[in-house]
Design goal:
The chain has 9 helices and 14 strands. It folds into 3 domains: 188 residues, 3-Layer(aba) Sandwich (Lysozyme-like), CATH 3.40.80.10; 43 residues, no CATH class; 88 residues, no CATH class. The longest helix is centred in the middle third of the chain and has 22 residues. The protein has a 6-stranded mixed β-sheet with strand order 1-4-3-5-2-6. The chain has a 4-stranded antiparallel β-sheet with strand order 8-7-9-10, with helices on one face. 27% of the residues lie in helices and 16% in strands. The structure holds zinc ion.
Length: 338
């Protein structure tokens, strides 16, 4: 999947921001002959190309209507197929005119003249990838995916023919897509690593501050007001004051927890990886360090290894001063130190 994100922050849907807990995915196609994303997604980020009419959906009411969806699939200006997320997944989108708006994630596929099998084949496969990604992200299966047309037949969407009216012209179908998504999901399950997630509440997906393969790391990341859940939503740990050592967190800002590049018991280690643009925060969100000079990632790695006693000024690894520490050993020790 060629995934990009450009939120339609001016759209009424984004402004209103009703919360969504996704129960399924509804696929649409635009019903207009224009395969280029720039018609719907903007402003130009350098890849989309310019839309001089500025009539993309990053307007309060595109075409005078209260409409939006979560993502678009179509062409970049160079003809490459891409996916653009334009609304956060946990916001309701007004895409199908009925109750499906309150339950379903939605994406629109840009239609062309409905005469190019190669284009349809490309966007069909991009849609499969997006569906697999969303199913994994929100614990959905292929059975939770339908198109606008199928949504109408079960009474949760208005009367439209997309995408069947287009796909059927070239032998593609929603059943075919669901089969492919099912295959994709079972493939990923083969190498599946169970993750422990840290959230305020299992149902509050947007509160998630991390997902960890190692339970102890999940517990360590669990802040006041948060809990650790296993993959089935069973609560296995609740934050307890003073159980785990205080951690210094390196983030762009305290609120931007997704920007976190590390959490360290040792303040020096946190400082060492704190590159320009980031700051170190204590457990209570108080900023304790902000780098003064330009501090690049390569400097940070070097300083981190030095502060852990693993690398000399010349870049050689020599933990015990006997010249016998190998780089692999050093990395292992460094991992255990942090
Ligand atoms: Zn539709």
């Amino acid at each position: 999947m060629n995934f990009h994100r450009l939120y339609a922050t001016a759209n009424k849907c984004y402004v209103v921001g009703n919360k969504l807990t996704p129960k399924g995915i509804m696929i649409h196609s635009t019903g207009a002959n224009n395969p280029y994303l720039k018609r719907y997604v903007g402003p130009d980020d350098g890849l989309l190309g310019t839309n001089s009419y500025k009539n993309y959906w990053n307007n309060y009411q595109p075409g005078g209507q209260s409409i939006c969806c979560h993502a678009f699939i179509g062409k970049l200006k160079d003809g490459t197929i891409a996916t653009y997320q334009i609304l956060p997944w946990n916001y309701q989108a007004w895409h199908c005119g009925r109750s499906g708006n309150q339950t379903h994630l939605s994406f629109e596929i840009c239609e062309d003249g409905l005469n190019d099998k190669n284009y349809l084949d490309a966007v069909y496969h991009e849609a499969i990838d997006l569906c697999i990604y969303l199913c994994k992200e929100f614990g959905l299966s292929e059975k939770d995916i339908l198109d606008h047309h199928e949504g109408n037949s079960i009474g949760i969407a208005s009367n439209h023919g997309d995408v069947a009216h287009w796909w059927s012209l070239f032998g593609y179908s929603m059943d075919g897509l669901r089969d492919e998504v099912k295959k994709g999901l079972s493939k990923t399950n083969e190498n599946h690593v169970a993750l422990y997630v840290v959230r305020k509440d299992w149902s509050d997906i947007s509160s998630q501050i991390g997902a960890y393969a190692i339970l102890d790391n999940a517990k360590r990341a669990c802040l006041s007001g948060y809990k650790v859940f296993d993959e089935n939503g069973t609560e296995i740990y609740e934050y307890e004051d003073g159980v785990y050592p205080e951690l210094y967190r390196v983030r762009k800002s305290w609120d931007d927890y997704r920007s976190q590049i590390g959490a360290f018991i040792n303040l020096d280690h946190a400082k060492a990886v704190c590159v320009t643009g980031y700051k170190v925060y204590d457990e209570n969100g108080k900023m304790v360090y902000s780098p003064e000079k330009k501090w690049k990632a390569s400097d940070a790695r070097h300083a981190l290894r030095q502060s852990a006693g693993l690398e000399t000024d010349t870049g050689e690894y020599d933990l015990n001063g006997d010249g016998k520490t190998t780089a692999a050993e050093a990395r292992q020790i460094l991992k255990n130190t942090l």
